[in-house]
Design a protein that fits this description.
About 0% of the residues lie in helices and about 50% in strands. The chain has no helices and 13 strands. The radius of gyration is 15 Å and the shape is globular.
């Protein structure tokens, strides 16, 4: 039988303008000491989506969707309230202490959206969230963004969440 797909990004630094999707259907995605970023010099930042049955982001990793005129979208293990059927739901999702997820606007515009999710309808699902989650509005103008953490079992500890206007 074929093994479940496993994607390990260790010591990787990827910066793109639009969107980044890392998907291991039925398998796992692990970020270890990596930096994934999407940005825009003219508008809102793009999106970063990590999908698999098990998704983990270690304390030395950063997911950055920061734009000069608006924050982007970071989805780890699912979409906002599971509204996007194209984004698969994880069973186990973990963000370790020290990890940074930042979907902030830099100069102007609203903060973006961060989702850390596992399947809320599966009693086996578990979401563990620590680290720093930021969705700040721009320093000149803009409102804070949205941050959602959810799962059938949700554990939050050693977490810093900020989603407010920074001006």
């Amino acid at each position: 039988l074929p093994a479940n797909p496993r994607i390990v990004l260790e010591g990787i630094d990827i910066s793109i303008e639009r969107s980044l999707l890392v998907d291991a259907p039925g398998g796992s995605v692990e970020l270890i000491g990596s930096r994934l970023s999407t940005s825009s010099s003219t508008g809102p930042a793009g999106s970063i989506t990590l999908m698999a049955d098990q998704v983990s982001v270690d304390g030395g990793s950063e997911l950055l969707a920061r734009g000069l005129a608006g924050g982007g979208l970071i989805q780890v293990g699912g979409s906002w309230q599971n509204q996007n059927p194209a984004v698969g739901q994880a069973t186990l999702t973990s963000i370790d202490p020290g990890a940074v997820l930042d979907a902030s606007a830099i100069n102007s515009g609203d903060g973006g959206t961060i989702v850390v999710w596992s399947n809320t309808l599966n009693p086996e699902s578990q979401t563990t969230v620590a680290g720093q989650l930021f969705a700040l509005g721009g320093v000149i103008a803009g409102d804070g963004g949205r941050i959602e953490t959810s799962g059938a079992s949700l554990q939050i500890g050693d977490i810093d969440v900020q989603a407010w206007s920074s001006h």
